[in-house]
Amino acid sequence: xxxxxxxxxxxxxxxxxAFAKELAAMGVEIISTxxxxxxxxxxxxKVIEISQYTGFPEMMDxxxxxxxxxxxxxxxxxxxxxxxxxxxxxxGIEAIDLVVVNLYPFEATVAKEGVTLExxxxxxDIGGPSMLRSAAKNYRSVTxxxxxxxxxxxxxxxxxxxxxxxxxxxxxxGIKVFVTTSKYDGAIADFLxxxxxxxxxxxxxxxxVSQLRYGxxxxxxxxxxxxxxxxxxxxxxxxxxxxxxxDITAAAELIEEFSEPTVAILKHTNPCGxxxxxxxxxxxxxxxxxxxxxxxxxxxxxxxxxxxxxARAISEIFSEVIIAPEFEADARxxxxxKKNLRLMRKLGAVQTKEDQILRSVVGGVxxxxxxxxPEKDIESKVVTARKPTAxxxxxxxxxWKVVKHVKSNAIVYAASDRTLGIGAGQMSRVDSxxxxxxxxxxxxxxxxGSAVGSDAFFPFPDGLIAAAEAGATCAIQPGGxxxxxxxIAAADERKMAMICTGVRHFRH
Length: 508
Known about the structure:
Cytidine Deaminase, domain 2, Rossmann fold, alpha/beta, 18 helices, 3 domains, 20 strands, six-stranded mixed sheet
């Protein structure tokens, strides 16, 4: 299957000229279209234009140029089928051995603000996917390249095999085509179906980022797919595990709740402590003070560059991962002394309102939109006789930012700049509160004058009463229980201020 003829038509011209010149040097005849042909000719590469090859002009603003029997017959005919070969010869169809095509930038186009339907439709590629699919279907004879990153693989194979590529390579490249065209079609369908009127099915196609050593436990297989590398860069340490990736995601989502300098510590996706301070080292002290046992082997995240002073404090305990937008040189040098510690650079925001959350279930997948804190003007939602003070309001805001990132049932006691006690994942909300109180007491932290945040309503007054007895003077919760009047009355009896936001933040 020596490559003697190639058809090249690309939107992304990265690396194309060098690739085409190498093909030409190996005696490959090149057929090309439109702007691709013009570029190659300008760079001195001999090209046969598609209209010359097919004997049919490009027409309708280029919409019709490669949809021709000489193209698809040249790709699809089976080289080991005598009847196919005879029919190709009869109709003057020559074999095309290599197809190099990437698609119109539909996703980039629709990502632009204010894009019109007409602009989007013009970026729906027809000829490109058709050629790719024809070539990929006949991968036993045809090499197909949809990704410029694969140019070197094709050239290396040709040089090593007297102008041929291996069946294994052709097979892998063919599979990549179907992954790419499936994702492309999905992007088109998602854009055109924004009203979800036809959302009778769900599909997802993402590229492999890495095979993991194992999944959640050593006996489980694991892999990471998607665009992880667009959000995080590993600067140091051993490879990430399945659990590391879950924890890093949870940490990144939590830290984006805060605009002021903040440090958070997480374990098994739950916050152990969160602190805010203009001095990042002081923010760490506040976060760590919440719970000095759980952070062992945990995840630390900052929303400011890690300083040497902070690095020295962090290095006193064993951590799995440290995440920050940057690490100062001295801090990085200090932390890199720990061979296995992963240092991760957070490259930008990880949350958008358009994100979908996926969970596998028996026989299918659950899909939901992201919990993007839709509540507004919570200051106006005070339901008790006493209004909160400015300090209490700040403490409730802090508790509310954190509690939505704690597994349900979730209770968080907080001051205006730190967590004081966190109770997560209990079957009873009262038990979560008891755990948070116990954690605070164990850490030597007073809950007197604190705010308590609850991810869902207090179903009975007992949870609120327990918080008041622990020292909380204000509470923030969604409300919505049939017992709300009793809970509010219990708060009023204890002179507590309480806000009912109207929004629940379950996290299962």
